[in-house]
Amino acid sequence: MRRASRVLLNLKVASILSVLGAWWLLSLFTSESILPSPASTFETMREMASRDGPYGKRVWDHFGTTFVRIIASFGVSLVLGTAIGIAMGMRRTVERALVNLVPLGLALPTLLVAFLFILWFGFGELAVHLAVVAVVTPFVIVNVWEGTKAMDKELLDMASAFKATPVMLVTKLIVPQLMPYLFSAFRYGFGVTWKIVLLAETFSQTTGIGVMVNLYYEQFNMAKVFAWLMTFVVVILVLEHLVFARIERRIFKWRHEIAS
Fold it and tell me: Whose CA is closest to 129, among 80, 76, 73, 79?
């Protein structure tokens, strides 16, 4: 088990180094104003982190603002999508009422949705949150819906026979069986939420990662555009490997115990 973990870690490190190496090689044949090298990008990141930027805010101020938007909007999408998905899987009438609407939600173009909500609700926080909910909720619904339909119905019948309360059914029986589907929806939806929030920030906000990337892009300052993008990538990697991976191992610890 330890050897397998070490091999997996080595593969991850090798893949990151390969990307950095390819980036460095490309930068040798491209102008620094178009494709900055990894070294200059990391130096720009260090400079940005040590001093105030535009609007009198530092890098982590913008990250904090964006992250709050992501957590708030994705939290609503996750709760709403889970509730609707369970209802569709458990109640045939709900499934028939919504089964044709969910594919429409999945097909919504992200860019168009962001533009429409900004047009309807103005340049404020509400437009960002509603755009995320409109795009992400259908993906959560589909995952939870399929998971609910795949549940062991005999366990549900047994719980009903023993007069289990609705709260007990959800917390002790339904949610544990749905955890693989919920975690899949969580990971995918969280990534999509990042993209939508950054896109909406570009057009409707004055603070946030999307605002800063757009600002430096309009100035054709590729060094700072890449610095912001790399800072974003670093944060995503930290969340993935130090937060989400640990949560996944803890939740699905029983899988490793069975495998061993």
Answer: 73
